[in-house]
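Example record for the data management plan.
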Amino acid sequence: MTKVYNVGVEATLDVIGGKWKPVILCDLHEGCMRTSELRRAIPAVTQKVLTEQLRELEHDGIVTRTVYNEVPPRVVYGLTAHGQDLSALLEQICQWGEDDVRRRAANGESVLIRHFGDDAPRREELLG
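Corresponding structural encoding:
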C-alpha cells in the first residue's frame, strides 16, 4: 500500500516525530554519543523508549549504530549523511525553542532550558 502525505512536513514528522526523537537528534547533532551519554543528556527518557526511538531512527536511515568488539561492548550512535541533512533544520528548531523560552521568561513565565552538562541554569535563561 502506498503511503500518501498531504504536505512535506507530514513526511518529516513521520520520521522525526515522537516525544524524544527531536531531542535525540539535537544531541547527536553535536557528535556521536554512547547510549549512556544519551541517557544522561535526556534524563526523563527510559532506557526502553530510548532504545526504541534509536532503532526507529536507525531503520529510517537517520542514525548509525556502531558496535565495537570490546568487553563490555561499546555502542555508539551518530547521524548518517541523510541525518546530517537535517542539521540546518534541527539548528533552527533548537534556536527557535531557545528564543521562545526567553520570550516566555520575559513575559513572566517560570521556564528555562538546562543544557547537557549544566550544573545550574544560566542566569540569562532564568531572566530571559
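Summary line stored alongside the record: The chain has a mean pLDDT of 88.
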